[in-house]
Q: What sequence folds into this?
């Protein structure tokens, strides 16, 4: 790592530097030098002298700084004298620059300052850009033409270049920068700041210098270049108000402090426009107290107010230079400074002793050294009570130092030294990060707890400052400087000091033991993603994301998620408050490692923030981090509660919502788009639960899984899924069945609907976590049957396909299948050996006492099963009991009072009679007529109601259910647009809607809540649409929390679903005993 310096100025104007390769402060060699301010950049440091001149100190290097001066000697040919320096009146000067516009005789070149010296005399460049024997002359027809070393018959003019080098000789010393001549120099400067070297990716990066005059004007130093370190002149930058101080970061950030206490932010800074384009005003952190000092880094801004409180500006970077808000940081500082990697250095208010906060640049750029390992607390005797020290008046310019000296004297007179503190007068402070004891001068010095937050900060600040002064004083005394208490610093600059958490620097290691750790109030994590911009033109953009978390004074944490991007060379950003995030959902998007960020507003607009990570690990790390922040700000921790709503996405991810008591309230219920969903490890196709904490799930391969609770020992979970594509063909008289269809036909390779083209080559597993485990093969197990080659036939594509060909069949299709597998870890235990297609747990109230919980299921072959021995103590149960049927079933549900309903594969509905705890298998099936001309495919039974979904995604309600007549009387159509329904123990109704009205392009599958459901209105009144875009299944059968009853409960909610058809009434059928 290269050697860099930390610079500081004491109250007497003496300049010190602390090298990363050294162990102590070193005073500048020039004993007469007195500076008021310093500002450091890479390899250099600028300062303002007490004589109001600007000084520059460049670190010595093996490569000298050399500048080449050049001028051109021009001649014209005439028939009498040949080539002479007698030129035409319209010609350029005899000695000029390369353009010929400016005269440059040899004697006109002067050294810009005493910091330069000539290396030699003028000489002719003999090469002319290439080897030449012409004495350095170049020839041309006329001066504006192109020159070449070859002399031709029409060469009427010639020129040659003279070169002389000058060398910068003031490296390693403080050199005075000369005043501009003949231009008017700026008025005396009261502050300077250098920065901007990170705006270029070139190796020869150089800083920009900004200055503030005593009249509040802002000046920019032009012409600073690696070959011209002093620059060439000053340029005034217009400002709307008078400026008192400014700070430039290594990048394109520039903040200025106004005399009225507010701040200005310069926008538009770039390599093409180093002075920027405009100013934006930002209010002071505190309305009552004005800002005193500002410090800028790569992506951070720190401010000290006149009450010496430290503030941090959140959300600051090149895309958003103004940031988004202020955060108060504990402690009292006189000034702060930001280093290369956003390390923060400050001066204690009372003792003006510099401290350093070292931090890892990418994970913890602010606060302590490591967020995961806080410093060990050691209880020590605390300081003696002290008087309230008067706060220094901080004016500008020279009186600033005088006031510090006077204030220091007052503090020294009223505060006893630490070694003289009587033990009986010590007061124990609240626990805080403390300073471990260090041996000093052969004896132990008692140290004290220092808490930079709260009311104790001022009381502990003086003693802590003296403590650090003693440590630094030891360093200075060993250097022989001779000051009893060590220097009292007025200014510190670490803009060129490269220190990070991994730096093996002796003075950092020794100094870190006495660093006062500010509370880790702010930390930031950044990453690189690709953002899917879903407005035209739709494309992926490379973005930088940042998660910024702050801790408030009351201990609550606040987090913001930023996305920074560029559009048409304009820097922009998006911000999402973590407490507004409602879900973090992994999604399938062009086979990238992608996840979507939902908020209530984005859920309403069906416009989630979709981000693609470069790797699976990066995606999982960010999902864990964001999810933990979301749960932390909501007070959610550990396993889901027993009342939780469980759901799965079409990708197989498991999502859980912790319900509130107002979720099912008749009035003022929680809107669906405000529900927060968090992910549970594992992978399932469907999941069911009840109020006793039992949760069962089924994978895509039919394996049954039971939830084992959140624990460190996650179980290995595998799942296998089949992916399908359809090969379509049309018959014609000439060639028979071919892949040449009509223009209006579906693609010849498509999905089952025929609306989307799907080939073997472009069909991928559901997500990158899946991997293929087989090759493509013809699927002969398609519903409806196939012929011996796997084909199904129909009159046309929208018609129903069958497994045999007839004279009217002009199209055919066959399904190709390929298996893929995923392996994850989660809190799920497999329940062998039977593979299931559906499962249902009896809903009950949370206070119910059941020795055994009835669990009914269907095997993948359609057999009805009952699980015995299931209880909260044994959630997996003991064995399966087979229930006889005369045909295979496809859906089953058990409701309150052991009501068991099922749907056969042909759409017939059955009710199981006489099911009880004493007779868990029941006695016989009662056939229930289906709705007219409809085949039901899924149903759910609650406490007193039954809802079902048919093949056309219509939702039906069963009328007339009574304890004496549990089969009900008729089916009533409630609405359309439903794919799955779940009825809870309070008869609450939730569905997975096929789509959301008004958003036809959204991926099917949205969570939807039926509002207004109650004893007098079991069908409810309207729908409330929640999160969507790929939801597969939902279970509300565990939520038995009774809503709080208010004095008035008027129905309300979003617009209702499409108009409901008139109900169709059908009588019951007879019982079928099996």
A:
């Amino acid at each position: 790592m290269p050697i860099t310096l930390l610079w500081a100025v004491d109250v007497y104007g003496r300049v010190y530097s602390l090298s990363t390769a050294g162990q102590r402060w070193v005073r500048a060699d020039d004993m007469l030098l007195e500076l008021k301010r310093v500002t450091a950049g890479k390899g250099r440091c600028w300062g303002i002298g007490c004589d109001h001149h600007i000084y520059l100190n460049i670190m010595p290097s093996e490569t000298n700084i050399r500048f080449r001066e050049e001028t051109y000697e021009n001649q014209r040919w005439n028939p009498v004298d040949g080539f002479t320096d007698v030129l035409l009146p319209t010609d350029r000067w005899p000695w000029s620059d390369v353009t010929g516009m400016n005269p440059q005789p040899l004697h006109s070149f002067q050294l810009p300052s005493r910091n330069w010296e000539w290396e030699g005399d003028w000489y002719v460049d003999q090469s002319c850009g290439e080897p030449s024997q012409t004495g350095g002359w170049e020839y041309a027809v006329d001066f504006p033409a192109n020159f070449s070393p070859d002399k031709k018959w029409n060469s009427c003019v010639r020129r040659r270049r003279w070169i002389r080098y000058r060398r910068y000789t003031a490296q390693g010393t403080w050199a005075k920068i000369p005043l501009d001549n003949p231009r008017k120099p700026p008025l005396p400067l009261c502050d300077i700041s250098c920065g901007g070297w990170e705006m270029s990716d070139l190796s020869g990066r150089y800083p920009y210098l900004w200055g503030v005059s005593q009249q509040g004007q802002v000046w920019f130093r032009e012409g600073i270049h690696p070959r011209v370190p002093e620059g060439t002149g000053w340029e005034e930058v217009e400002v709307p108000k008078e400026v008192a101080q400014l700070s430039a970061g290594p990048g394109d950030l520039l903040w200025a402090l106004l005399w009225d206490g507010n701040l200005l932010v310069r926008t538009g800074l770039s390599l093409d426009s180093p002075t920027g384009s405009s100013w934006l005003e930002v209010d002071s952190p505190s309305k009552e107290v004005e800002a005193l000092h500002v410090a800028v880094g790569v992506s951070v801004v720190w401010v000290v107010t006149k009450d010496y409180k430290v503030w941090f500006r959140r959300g600051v970077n090149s895309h958003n230079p103004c940031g988004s808000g202020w955060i108060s940081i504990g402690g009292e500082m006189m000034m702060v400074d930001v280093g290369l990697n956003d390390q923060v250095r400050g001066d204690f208010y009372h003792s003006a002793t510099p401290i350093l906060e070292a931090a890892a640049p990418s994970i913890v750029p602010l606060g302590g050294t490591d967020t995961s390992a806080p410093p060990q607390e050691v209880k020590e005797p605390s300081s003696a009570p002290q008087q309230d020290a008067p706060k220094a008046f901080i004016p500008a310019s020279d009186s600033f130092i005088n006031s510090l000296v006077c204030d220091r004297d007052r503090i020294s007179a009223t505060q006893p030294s630490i070694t003289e503190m009587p033990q009986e007068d010590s007061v124990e402070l609240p626990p805080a990060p403390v300073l471990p004891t260090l041996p000093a001068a052969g004896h132990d010095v008692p140290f004290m707890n220092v808490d930079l937050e709260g009311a104790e900060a001022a009381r502990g600040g003086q003693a802590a400052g003296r403590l650090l002064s003693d440590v630094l004083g030891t360093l200075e005394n060993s250097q022989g400087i001779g000051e009893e208490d060590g220097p009292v610093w007025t200014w510190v600059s670490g803009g060129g000091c490269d220190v990070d958490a991994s730096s093996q620097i002796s003075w950092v290691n020794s100094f870190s033991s006495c660093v006062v750790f500010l509370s880790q109030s702010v930390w930031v994590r950044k990453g690189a993603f690709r953002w899917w911009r879903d407005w035209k033109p739709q494309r992926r953009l490379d973005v930088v994301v940042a998660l910024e978390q702050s801790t408030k004074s009351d201990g609550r944490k606040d987090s913001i998620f930023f996305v920074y991007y560029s559009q048409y060379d304009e820097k922009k950003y998006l911000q999402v408050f973590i407490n507004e995030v409602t879900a973090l959902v992994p999604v399938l998007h062009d086979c990238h490692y992608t996840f979507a960020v939902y908020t209530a507003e984005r859920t309403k607009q069906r416009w989630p923030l979709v981000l693609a990570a470069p790797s699976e690990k990066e995606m999982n790390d960010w999902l864990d981090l964001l999810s933990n922040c979301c749960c932390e700000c909501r007070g959610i921790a550990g396993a889901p509660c027993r009342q939780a709503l469980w759901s799965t996405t079409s990708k197989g991810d498991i999502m859980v919502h912790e319900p509130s008591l107002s979720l099912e309230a008749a009035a003022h219920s929680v809107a669906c788009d405000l529900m927060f969903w968090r992910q549970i490890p594992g992978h399932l196709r469907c999941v069911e639960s009840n109020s006793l904490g039992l949760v069962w799930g089924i994978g895509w391969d039919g394996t049954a899984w039971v939830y084992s609770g959140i624990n460190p020992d996650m179980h290995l979970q595998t799942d296998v899924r089949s992916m399908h594509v359809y090969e379509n063909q049309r018959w014609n008289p000439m060639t028979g069945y071919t892949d040449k269809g009509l223009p209006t036909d579906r693609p010849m390779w498509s999905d089952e609907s025929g609306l989307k083209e799907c080939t073997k080559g472009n069909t991928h597993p559901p997500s990158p976590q899946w991997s293929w485990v087989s090759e493509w093969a013809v699927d002969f197990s398609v519903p409806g049957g196939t012929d011996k080659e796997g084909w199904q036939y129909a009159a046309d594509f929208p018609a129903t396909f069958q497994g045999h060909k007839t004279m009217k069949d002009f199209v055919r299709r066959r399904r190709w299948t390929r298996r893929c597998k995923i392996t994850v870890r989660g809190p799920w235990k497999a329940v062998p050996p039977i593979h299931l297609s559906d499962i249902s747990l009896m809903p009950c109230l949370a206070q119910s006492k059941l020795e055994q919980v009835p669990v009914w299921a269907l095997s993948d072959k359609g057999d009805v099963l009952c699980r015995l021995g299931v209880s909260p103590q044994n959630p997996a149960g003991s064995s399966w009991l087979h229930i006889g049927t005369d045909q295979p079933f496809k859906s089953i549900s058990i409701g309150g009072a052991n009501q068991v309903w099922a749907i056969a594969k042909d759409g017939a509905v059955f009710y199981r009679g006489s099911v009880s705890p004493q007779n868990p298998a029941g006695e016989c099936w009662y056939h229930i007529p289906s709705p007219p001309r409809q085949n039901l495919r899924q149903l759910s039974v609650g406490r007193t109601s039954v809802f079902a979904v048919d093949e056309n995604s219509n939702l039906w309600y069963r009328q007339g259910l009574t304890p004496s007549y549990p089969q009900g009387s008729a089916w009533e159509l409630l609405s359309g647009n439903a794919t799955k329904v779940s009825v809870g123990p309070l008869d609450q109704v939730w569905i997975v809607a096929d789509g959301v009205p008004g958003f036809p392009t959204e991926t099917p599958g949205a969570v939807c809540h039926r509002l207004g459901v109650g004893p007098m209105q079991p069908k409810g009144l309207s729908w409330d649409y929640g999160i969507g875009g790929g939801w597969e299944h939902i279970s509300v059968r565990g939520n038995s929390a009774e809503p709080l009853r208010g004095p008035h409960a008027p129905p309300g909610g979003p617009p209702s679903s499409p108009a409901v058809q008139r109900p169709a009434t059908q009588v019951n059928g007879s019982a079928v005993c099996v």
Helices lie at 398-414, 456-479, 506-512, 600-605, 616-634.
